[in-house]
Amino acid sequence: MKQESPPRKSIDSWLGKAIPRGQVSEVFLPVSESYSGISLSIPLQIHRSDVDGPTVFVTAALHGDELNGTGAVRELILDKEFRLKKGSLILVPILNLLAFDRHSRYMPDRRDLNRCFPGSPNGSLASRVADTIFTEIVGRCDFGIDLHTASIRRTNYPNVRADMSDPRVAALAKHFGTEVIVDGAGIDGSLRKEACRQGCPTIVLEGGEVWKVEPAIVETAVRGVKNVLAHLDMIDFAKEIPEQQLVVKRTQWVRADGGGFLQFHVRPGQVVEINQPLATNTDLLGHQNRIMEAPFDGVIIGMTTIPAVGPGQPVFHIGKLPKDTDPDELRESRQSEENLEQRTVEDLASNVMVVDHEESRYPES
Fold first, then answer.
1. CA separation for the pair 328, 186 (Å, rounded)
2. Residues 31-75: pLDDT tens digits?
3. How far, rounded to the nearest angstrom, does the alpha carbon of residue 86 sit from its chain's CA centroid?
4. Are residues 223 and 276 in the same domain?
5. Geometric angle at alpha carbon 190, from 184 and 194, rounded to 5°
6. 252 touches 320 (CB < 8 A)
């Protein structure tokens, strides 16, 4: 449930430092201390226009090993031609510095920071960091974009996660411009859900793998951020929206029925139809054990990158196509050399070996 919005903190100054209009400023936000008592601070870049307007945050690496978003934020930071015509933008390349320094998803106290918001100044380490982030960053903003990747040993086809029941959130999600939008309010304690509860409409981009900066994912993220800023009339930018956008209300993990070594037949982002073979599970000598099939017409929004599986392990995350979506029309909408969605499918597929099911040959057990 959306709560009454608290008063926004001013963007005019931060930690006693003036943030002038019409300039780009840097702030180092203390979030914790080392064992030696040295202050640990996350770097922020703040863009301000001379003209009043919304304040937007773009955060990356809330999980410290999810670096695609960091690559995207750095592209914006390094773009010398990037200018706001109104409002303010807070860019945060690494939100979870403590996890980033350990090449880890989690905080040193083994907590998931993205389950600790809005946090508490007197709580655990993760809760205290969450409180600082929520107070000092979210508390100054009108809108938010949080950039994520799949968890370890998985990859995600770019998709926005958003509570489409909130009109302001839905507008952000659609204008961001991914082909797939997964509808849902999110998990209690997550930055996205708690920011929305506090009256700061926020969306999440999920795309790619951990520990990587993948060109197609970075391009998707940068394009999406600029699309949103153009939607809010904060920059001049010709918005780029896919020919088709799917609002997915149901997703399902297809899990392995038994152990074995998989031969994948589909790739991240591929459009599939009900009962289509997704992978063949074999023993180590190549004897076919089982064939995994699509439970409905859908799109592969996530999948494992490790072909060795055990019983019950998740392999394919499928978003069910809306009833009015024709799989063939969706495939045809991507058929262009300049189509970012198709290029993303091809780029992500370079991390897994995919063989067409009709061309595969396995001896029977």
1. 31
2. 999 889 999 999 999 999 999 999 999 999 999 999 999 999 999
3. 26
4. no
5. 85
6. yes
